[in-house]
User: Fold these one by one.
Assistant:
Number 1:
Amino acid sequence: MRTILFTATLALASVGSAGATPAADARSAATAFRLEGPFELHSRVYPGTVRRYWVYVPPHYDRTKPPNLLLFQDGQRATNPTGSLRVPAVLDALIRDGTLPPTLGVFVTPGHRAATYPTDLGMQNPDHRVEEYDSLSDDYARMTLDELLPAVARRWRFADDPRRRAIGGTSSGAIASWTVAWRHPEAFGNVLSFIGSYTSIGLRLGSDGAPVALGGDLYPGLIRKSAIRPIRVFFQDGSADLDNEHGNWFLANQQMVKALAWANAHAEEQHRPGPRYDVRYQWTAGGHSDADGGALLPEALRWLWRDQPAAR
């Protein structure tokens, strides 16, 4: 484990409704921020796998005042200082700018089948990613809530209130994040979903052709036929996203938004008390890339926690 002090120059922009294009009031911030790790975590939920995680510690961290929590998937890419996302740098700039509450960032890779995490894997996907991220089971949530977060909490405190916790990712990391919040809204009340894989990647067929495991393309139907969860979610996808044997990504993301809107409207028509989904979406012209999500990340984070006191 090591403490990394990064110096990052980051442009923070207001993003217009037309897409992920920096507005004229973009500002630059150059600061050193604190990123601890990588740490290794061996999972009991997924025996024989190991994953890495990093922790971004916000300025003036105080254990007696637990900060918000952002948990981001595919941590190797989310923390890449030359990548499209650079999530720790975005968090740090927004917190120092006084537009985001103090937030602890946790960035975790998928599991890899090995005794130790390979040092030469770089930005590649670990080999247990599909089994963890694209499954609709509760396994990934159990690993997150029962193993990863307790490991982090042994050293850093963070908020218990689900309204002060966000979980996010890109592609299959986005659907994994949605699954955790969908199954456990008492743990996470906010979701960041960039180019989400709400498709049939997780679908497995038996020898008779019948499904033995379901895929994420089931979610729009589940949303329409299930009780509303108290979830706030930001979606981004591009019109040039993937279209392959698993499904059409752009259509799948639009189906998610439509299902959430229908669930809200139906609850209103029935005069049902209780929560409503809080949804924002941004459709861009991009493909299956982190680029547009990275450009929108500052605005998405500000929107998720818009009703909470920012850092002062």
Number 2:
Amino acid sequence: MNARICGVLSANLLAAALLFAPGAAADTIPGADAAIGKAESALGTDQFGPWGCEAFVAYAFGVSQAQYGWDGAAETMYQTLLQRGQIHTDMDAPRGALVFSKSPYGAHIDIARGDGTYISGGVQGLKRGYGDGHNIQILPTPHVGSGWVYRGWSLGYPE
């Protein structure tokens, strides 16, 4: 085989490997920075109440929560995304990913900040007195304590 053809094939293979590598930059969420900025503007408040994780995430992304139902929307979204094969179970959620967990209290949804921390709403409904005592906080894990199960993340809302 000609050296020139080998060089072109090698370059194409390298480009494909980088493009489709796990954790590649292709895993981005449209509007993630704006959503995180909006979410962070509510930090330390009690907006959306002690069980308002779904409403908080919908607010941050500017999505109507009504399309997923007001009660149990985190579970509805998770199940829809799971059925479509859009849930990733690794712990490397990119910035702006929707992150799901569950406990005996029910399903929960956070927003990944892309640095291993999560913005969460409804924290006091999950664990009274946790952190700074407010409903909207930055969490070091995608849940607030024992009994919680990490379920995975998605690049966005189901359509």
Number 3:
Amino acid sequence: MVINIKNGFYMKNIKILGRSMTNKNKDKKGFTLIELLVVVAIIGALAAVGVVAYNGYIGAARENSTKSIHNGVAKYIANEAAKCALDENATIMGGTITCTSTTDAIITVLTGGTVLQDKDPYDGGLSVVGTTPTDTDKVRGNVVVTKADAGTTQKILITTCWDKDCTETALTTTVQVFE
């Protein structure tokens, strides 16, 4: 057995069959391939879980946003109708029409994008539309504003679909505009 002194430390140098058993790579620093693979596997697992959770949060936020826009449109129409109940000569819908306007004129103003500027949370287009889109990928997220009936009563029907296939019960609200 030979004792070598290196940098103030004692090292045992044992020779077996002519080979030295000291760690020649002791001064080299770094990570082994196995350590790096374990870290990459852990990061991959965390990313997979995070993407699934993120998609769930985004889907729920879009549904809630669509429902909120529906309720906001219904409240806006009811508030504008209340202005007419107070003053029959008032202008409503941002000053674009009067209280003597027809339901069709009100729907045209609502769906024109000048008064209500909410965006569809699913495709980014205008959220308030006059007819249900024919493209099945663009149906959800739209607040469809139509006449409630063909009679003389001025009612507006607001229908909103928020799920992919519109299989859930759609939100439906009828608002009396003028009496």
